[in-house]
Amino acid sequence: MKDPLDLTGKVAVITGGASGIGLGATELLAEHGATVVMIGTNPAKGKKAEEELKAKGLNVKFLQGDVTKEASCKENLEQVEREFGRLDILFNNAGATVRKKVTDLTEEEWDFVLDVGLKGTFLMSKYAIPLMKESGGGSIINCGSGWGLKGGNLAAAYNAVKGGIVIMTRGMAIDHGPDNIRVNSVNPGDTDTEMLRDEGVQTGETNMEEYLKDCGVGRPLSRLGKPRDIANAVLFLASDLSSWITGTAIVVDGGGIA
To answer: What is the phi/psi pair of residue 11, to 5°?
Structure first.
């Protein structure tokens, strides 16, 4: 009997795949047999991640790209088609945040956060879905957040993006179910990444160790998330174990919004 977690022969694309949650998902999906293409804006970081994962015997590739630019998304996915001939999994993971109230946000900051998180999810999906249809179907996983379901302080733009992703996911699931494409969102709580540390800096935290500890202690499971915790949910949604799951929002946050 085939292992339902076996992704051998499948091709995955992960935006923001060279760091944080994206890197955790890249490594885990590749460990389960997928060919994984990481897309990101930082070529030095991307090539370093590619080299390190290839040294572990994993089949990965980095492509420089900007999810906020339609031409870049189209070109990246055309290259995936040329090199690998198919696309089975898309993890729309790229995101950004500016920790401010709406009264303090500039228009440029608002546009930046929405363009990376929401527009990027739209553009990557727009060009990924036709490839998935040609491959017989697939799984799209959009990265939401616990704060897209309950809201959070000093994060109005981020809340807007993540709430939008949750409902956008449901609409996409309805539209593309007939194409055998499942669309779900994974919604992390605070996870130990560079982005979380940057949020601490933005909000004026002076003791990073205490800040990270505080991000975890109020949760029922009493710890901060790790990229692998979120990657496990991505693997589940990418695999045959979730073959009858679409249009749902899976929360992975140690019980934070419970």
So the answer is: -115, 130
> How many helices and strands, by DSSP H and E, does the chain display?
9, 7
- State the average pLDDT over residues 106-117: 98
Closest CA to 237 of 184, 188, 196: 184
> Tokens representing 36?
């994984």
Instruction: Confirm if 140 and 187 have CB atoms less than 8 A apart.
Output: no
Nearest to 222 by CA among 198, 200, 252, 253: 253
Q: How far apart are CA 209 and CA 194, in angstroms?
A: 13
Q: Which of 158, 185, 186, 253 is catalytic?
A: 158
Query: How far apart (Å, rounded) are the C-alpha atoms in residues 242 and 239?
Result: 6
* CB 212 within 8 Å of CB 185: no
Q: Is 127 a catalytic residue?
A: no
Nearest one of 152, 218, 221, 224 to 193, comparing CA atoms: 224
Each residue's pLDDT tens digit, 117-144: 999 999 999 999 999 999 999 999 999 9
* DSSP structural state of residue 36: E
